[in-house]
Amino acid sequence: MIDVIEASGPAVVELRGADKVFANGMRGLAPIDLTVHSGEFVTLIGPSGCGKSTLLKLIANLITPTSGRLGWWGEDFGQVGQAGHQMGFVFQEPTLMPWSRVATNVRLPLDLAGVTRAEAAPRVDAALAQVDLTAFRRHYPRQLSGGMRMRVSIARALVTDPDLLLMDEPFGALDEFTRNKLDDDLLRLSFQRRLTTVFVTHSLYEAVFLSTRVIVMASNPGRVFAEFRVDEPEPRGDDFRTSVRFAELSSRLSKILHEASLASGRLP
Amino acid sequence: MAPIAVGALILALWEGACRFWHVPAYLFPMPSAIVAALVHNWPVLLRALGTTMLITLQAFVIAVVLGTLIAFVFVQNKAIEASLFPYAVLLQVTPVVAVAPLIIILVKNTALSLTICAAVVAIFPVISNTTIGLHSVDPGLLSYFRMNKATRLATLLRLRIPSALPFFLAGLRIASGLALIGAVVAEFVAGTGGQSAGLAYQILQAGFQLDIPLMFAALFLIAVSGVLLYLLMVGLNKALLGHWHESALAEER
């Protein structure tokens, strides 16, 4: 189960020896080699301080590597955003514009890309329908619950019809029921739209439930410790969540995580 | 309602006390005497009020436009802000009474010199609040805009300006009051009489003539204008931010 990585689709993101040393001299990430293939759902998990968010920010080009290379669809970041190379990002917080209505928030990436209102309208409607928020399109973010705000944030990421979806612990602040519901929705969407996703989480159950591949990271310095495949077919639902197999996978991942935190020189 | 009730109570006690102890009007006039003075001198006072309000509004507009432009220059570059902000502070801590004579000597046109004095007083909160506002952008949203390759203009219009708006409006609220204070103080220093005399001159005149009720009447008009300006700013705040910002939302219980 571990280390056996068969190549699926073409490479969407490739990191070759990419590392990150912060301005204060701290080493955030040791050089990392990682390829995310089309159609994969890759989860980054590990003890806090292992650089999983840093790795995701590298992939999102929010920060640049100190050395090494990154490629998106085999090219540099310049052509990300063009047709077939769309990237969506969901933050830890909903990160919405409080002065704009839900529909305007969802439309933002299209507005920034210069898409006309008329062209954007049906796409906004579709994205809102996908997260069940059609009835709330004229609401303001403050009028929504935490889970609904997160769904707006997801709709905003989906509206560009992304070929790569990056999510940084998007459901970390939510209660377990809401989180499970959103996990279900996310999985359904990613299956329907054949999304390529890189997802950061603290929860090993979430990692097992969502992923096709789990990257376990260790800290001091942040590095890839192990890879773990979950070859459960899609679609997955509550049956999978309550299955013996799920429990087995979870306990195996739990052991690897424990080893990762020992290797990090501190307990989680 | 509550502030009005408190005001009415204070006026009643004031009137009663003045009548009970027979306080002479030249020491401390009764509210009824002030109202009488107000009615009797209405045309003069109204013209004076018009003059003062014109200077106040001109100064306010100048302070808002200039202050906002300066704030926009400040946020372009840390070095610009660091090297120029101390001078904005200098402007703020220099008492207008001290600089007003200089401005009045330098600028021939009285109305213009008074406007400049008042604008100098009112501009600092606009600069400082707008600068803070333009800096207070959600870093997550800023990253999101950058990730989506937003242009500088789009980031300014769709992110920086809406983020700054609550701070800017709070600055306007302070500046509107300061513009009025600046206008009145400058009038005091200038001591201009004649047709274009403002409320401050009426107060000075009334003081010389020991017409204390008239003095209070002029003072009352200044206070009312100040409150009205403030309410206008509160209304503007509500109109612009009512749908989203905490400062303008009705409390939900």
Task: Please describe what this structure looks like.
The complex is a heterodimer of chains A (268) and B (253). Chain A is an alpha/beta fold and 268 residues long. Chain A contains eight helices and nine strands. Chain A has two domains: 1-86 and 164-268, Rossmann fold (3-Layer(aba) Sandwich), CATH 3.40.50; 93-161, no CATH class. Helices cover 35% and strands 22% of the residues of chain A. In chain A, the strands form two sheets. In chain A, strands 5-6-7-3-8-9 form a six-stranded mixed β-sheet, with helices on both faces. Residues 1-6 of chain A have low confidence and may be disordered. With 253 residues, chain B is an all-alpha fold. Chain B has one domain (52-240): MetI-like (MetI-like fold, Orthogonal Bundle). In chain B, helix 5 crosses helix 8 (152-190) and helix 6 (110-135) packs antiparallel against helix 8. At the A-B interface, helix 2 of A face helix 7 and helix 8 of B.
- Counting helices, strands and paired strands, the structural category of chain B is mainly alpha
Please tally the β strands of chain A and state the result. Answer: 9
Which pair of chains forms the biggest interface, and how many residues does each contribute? Answer: A-B, 20 and 21 residues
The top level CATH class name of the largest domain in chain A: Alpha Beta
Mean pLDDT of chain A: 88
* Parts with pLDDT < 50 across at least 5 consecutive residues of chain B: none
Element string of chain B (H = helix, E = strand): HHHHHHHHHH
Number of separate helices of chain B: 10
| Second-tier CATH architecture of the largest domain in chain A | 3-Layer(aba) Sandwich
Q: Largest beta sheet of chain A: what is the strand line-up?
A: 5-6-7-3-8-9
Q: What overall form of chain B do the CA principal axes indicate?
A: globular
Q: What is CATH's topology name of the largest domain in chain A?
A: Rossmann fold
- Outline of chain A, from the CA principal axes? globular
Number of strand segments of chain B: 0
CATH superfamily of chain B: MetI-like
* Oligomerization: heterodimer
- Structural class of chain A, please? alpha/beta
Please give the count of helices of chain A. Answer: 8
Radius of gyration of chain B: 22 Å
